[in-house]
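Newbie here. two chains, one complex. Structure please?
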Amino acid sequence: MNISIKRMISIIGIGSISTLLILLMLEVAFAQVLTNTLIGNISDNLILLIIILGLFLLTIIIAFVVGYFVSQDIALKSVRNASIMSLGCLFLFLFIVANGSLFILHRSVYSKVSGFEILWIFPQVLVYFSIYVLGDVFSLFILEIIVYYCFFIVFLEKLYQVKK
Amino acid sequence: MTTRKLYGREGSDASRRNKISQEYWNESTHTILSYWFCLIATGIEFFLGIQHINEYFGQMCLVEAFFGISGLLLLDPIHGRRFQLYPKPFKRVHKNTFFRFAITFSIIVAIQFIFQVVPLITSTEMALGIVMCAPVEEYFFRGVLMEPSFIIAKKSKNKITIWKYPPRKKKPDKEISYVEIGMIFLSAAIFSSVHVNYYGQLNLLLMVFAGGCWLSFIYWWNRDLTPLILSHFLLNIFFVYQYYMVVGL
C-alpha cells in the first residue's frame, strides 16, 4: 500500500472537518448577501433551491481545495486526477442514492417524470432527498463531504506518486 | 570497535536531532489550512465588529480581529523568517494532524464537561462571534505569545526531559525549559483574563485557564496550530449548540 491506513484516516478526517468548518465560515459571510439579494425578490421554493444547491456546490469546491491542502506531499497531478474522479463518483453515488431512496420512500415525486427527464430534475431530487429522507439539509453536506473524501482516498491510493 | 560504533550512532542521532530542530526553524509557522482559517475568521470578526461597533460585543469582535491580524502578520517574523503577507511555502499539513486534533479535542471537551459551563448568548451575531474567534485566539494566544519562549528556550541549557522516545523511534526526547513552562501558564492566564468581561463567571474562567494550559502545552509539543484551531473551533460550535439546547432556539 502506498498510503498507510493511519494516513488515510487522517486525510479523510482532517479533510472532512476542515471542509465543514470552512463551509460554516463562508456560509456566514454569504448569509448577509443572500438575505439582501434573494429574500423578498423570488418565491420561497426557488430561494430554498438556490440556497441548498449553492451550498452544495460550495461544499464541493471547498472539499476540492482542501483535498489539495491536506495532501501536499503527494504529486499535484495525482491529487488533481483523484479529485476529478472522486467528484464524478460522488455525483454518481448521490444520483443513485437520492433517486433510489426517493423512488422507494416518496414515489409520488416521479409521477409526472418520464425517461431522461430524471436527469434534469436531479437538483430538485437532491433537495427533496435532503429534506425528506435525510431530514436535515446539513446532513446532505456532511454525507457529500465524507463520501467525497472516501472516493478521494481510494483514487489517491491508486494514482499515488511522490512529489518531486 | 564497540565504542566506535556507539559513538557513531550517538553522532548520527545528534545530527538527526539537529536536522529536525533546524527544519522547524527554517519553515513557516503557518500551514495553508491554519492561515486561511485565520484569515477568514479575522474578516468575519472585523465585519461583525464594524456592524456592532456601538455595543460591547462589537468592540470585542474588533479586538479579536486585531488578534487575528497580529497573528497573521507577526508570527513568522517572531519565528525568525522574513515578513511575507502570503507566507509561501507554507509548512506542510502534518500527516498525523487528525490524530493530534482528536487527542486535543477530546481533552478540552473533558475539561468543558468537568466545569459544566453554559455560555450566555444574547444574539445570533454573538454566537457567530464566539464560534469564529477560535482561529484568531489560537494565533494570538498560542502562536504570538508562545513563540518567543521557544526562541529563548533554544539557547537554554536547563531543560527537563518530560518524554523519552524509545530508540527505535529515532526522535529527539521532549525537553521543556522553565521559560516555556512559565509561558504556558502565562499565556493561559492572559487567555482567561480576556474572557473575564465576556461573562464574569468564575467557573468559565477556570475552564478557560485549564483549556488554555492544555492548548499551550499541545502547541509546545507539536509546534503546529492546525489541530488547535480545529479543536477550539469545534469546541466553540458545541459550546454554542449547548446553549441553544438548554435555552432553546
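Moderator note: The CA atoms of residues 78 and 160 of chain A lie 6 Å apart. The helical segments of chain A are 5-37, 44-70, 76-105, 117-120, 122-133, 137-158. Thread marked as resolved.
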